[in-house]
From TrEMBL:
<keyword id="KW-0949">S-adenosyl-L-methionine</keyword>
<keyword id="KW-0489">Methyltransferase</keyword>
<feature type="domain" description="Methyltransferase type 11">
    <location>
        <begin position="49"/>
        <end position="138"/>
    </location>
</feature>
<dbReference type="GO" id="GO:0008757">
    <property type="term" value="F:S-adenosylmethionine-dependent methyltransferase activity"/>
</dbReference>
<dbReference type="InterPro" id="IPR029063">
    <property type="entry name" value="SAM-dependent_MTases_sf"/>
</dbReference>
<comment type="similarity">
    <text>Belongs to the methyltransferase superfamily.</text>
</comment>
<dbReference type="GO" id="GO:0032259">
    <property type="term" value="P:methylation"/>
</dbReference>
<dbReference type="InterPro" id="IPR011814">
    <property type="entry name" value="BioC"/>
</dbReference>
<dbReference type="GO" id="GO:0010340">
    <property type="term" value="F:carboxyl-O-methyltransferase activity"/>
</dbReference>
<protein>
    <recommendedName>
        <fullName>Malonyl-[acyl-carrier protein] O-methyltransferase</fullName>
        <ecNumber>2.1.1.197</ecNumber>
    </recommendedName>
</protein>
<dbReference type="GO" id="GO:0102130">
    <property type="term" value="F:malonyl-CoA methyltransferase activity"/>
</dbReference>
<dbReference type="InterPro" id="IPR013216">
    <property type="entry name" value="Methyltransf_11"/>
</dbReference>
<dbReference type="GO" id="GO:0009102">
    <property type="term" value="P:biotin biosynthetic process"/>
</dbReference>
<dbReference type="Pfam" id="PF08241">
    <property type="entry name" value="Methyltransf_11"/>
</dbReference>
<keyword id="KW-0808">Transferase</keyword>
<keyword id="KW-0093">Biotin biosynthesis</keyword>
<comment type="function">
    <text>Converts the free carboxyl group of a malonyl-thioester to its methyl ester by transfer of a methyl group from S-adenosyl-L-methionine (SAM). It allows to synthesize pimeloyl-ACP via the fatty acid synthetic pathway.</text>
</comment>
Length: 254
């Protein structure tokens, strides 16, 4: 239990440090989340739970459609910003693996790029299924293997240490969801940045990029490592590409 708690505390702390500048650097999170929002927005619902709401970007979109929004996040700093922006009716600081919410009380659960920080995907999905009303929907997105592959390949040329988090495969997510009625869709995003430093800042902005086994990696990247990464990184015309692979999932509450 101590290991799990330490990991969760580290994740919350990492996202908390990113909170103040998050909206300015989370353009990919906003763009990729819009697809999930659009898929769910036509579903009849009243009470929406935004799980891993961050600073409340999508909570606010749900609020503007007239929904009663519950904003939930592990990070107190993220949640505080969401509350300052008045994006929801209720704010809950909680772990999505242990939701303090009654059974069958939510019409629709929305979770964009949050569940990948859980150690076992089945646990948060089970919790979301538990709290969703019959006939309701759980919509989620998560990173899968192949994400950040350009950066990972560069690190392998420098040392054998693990610098990038591991993500589940599509098949593993499919197997996790097999207990429920579900649908899954894969989508790849290729982003480009004008410099390697901009690329690194965008990744750090998600808060948990360098959390390895629940611990913040010790020490900063050395100047020598940075220079090697830039040399090895595939780029042309001052454009640095970076791949994100996502799965968009729907669970249908029966």
């Amino acid at each position: 239990m101590q290991t799990i708690l330490t990991k969760k505390q580290a994740i919350a702390h990492a996202f908390g440090r990113a909170a103040k500048n998050y909206d300015n650097i989370a353009l990919f999170q906003q763009q990729s989340g819009q697809y999930l929002f659009n898929c769910l927005s036509s579903i009849p619902s009243n009470i929406i739970l935004d799980v891993g709401c961050g600073t409340g970007y999508f909570s606010d979109q749900w609020r503007l459609t007239g929904k009663q929004v519950i904003a939930l996040d592990l990070s107190a700093a993220m949640l505080a910003i969401a509350q300052q922006k008045k994006v929801a009716k209720i704010y809950i600081q909680a772990d999505m693996e242990y939701l303090p919410i009654a059974d069958e009380s939510i019409d629709l659960c929305f979770s964009h790029l949050a569940i990948q920080w859980c150690s076992n995907l089945y646990t948060p999905l089970s919790e979301l299924y538990r709290i969703t009303k019959k006939g309701g929907v759980i919509g989620f997105s998560t990173l899968i293997d192949g994400s950040l592959k350009e950066l990972q390949q560069c690190w392998k040329k420098i040392d054998n240490n693990k610098h990038i988090n591991s993500f589940m495969t599509f098949q593993q997510i499919k197997q996790t969801c097999h207990s429920w009625k579900y649908s899954l869709k894969k989508q790849s995003w290729l982003l480009t940045y004008p410099s390697f430093i901009c690329l690194l800042r965008s990744i750090k902005g998600v808060g948990a990029t360098y959390l390895i086994n629940g611990r913040q990696q010790q020490g900063l990247m050395t100047k020598n490592q940075l220079e090697k990464l830039i040399d090895y990184y595939p780029h042309s015309n001052k454009q640095f590409p970076l791949t994100y692979n996502l799965v968009y999932g729907m669970l249908y509450r029966e």
